[in-house]
Design brief:
2 domains; two-stranded antiparallel sheet; rod-shaped; binds zinc ion
Length: 74
């Protein structure tokens, strides 16, 4: 019985170690990611903005809420 608990403890430890390793890998890749992001051109002023910072409306991209509002009033 004691052997069973030992095996269970080893498996549990392996799982915990594996998960922490996976977490480390994903945080490393996510911190490296912004440099690889595509630059998107604002359809109002032409400014290039990282893809994750653009605002999208009706298939158009904007650098700021103001440009999105002004362009859609026209
Ligand atoms: Zn703009």
């Amino acid at each position: 019985m004691a052997r069973l608990f030992l095996i269970l403890a080893i498996v549990l430890l392996a799982v915990v170690l594996w998960r922490s390793l996976q977490k480390k890998i994903t945080t490393q890749t996510s911190t490296r990611r912004p440099a690889a992001l595509d630059m998107i051109r604002c359809d109002y002023c032409g400014l290039h903005v990282p893809e994750d910072r653009t605002l999208r409306l009706h298939g158009r991209h904007y650098c700021s809420e103001e440009h999105m509002r002004v362009d859609n009033k026209r």
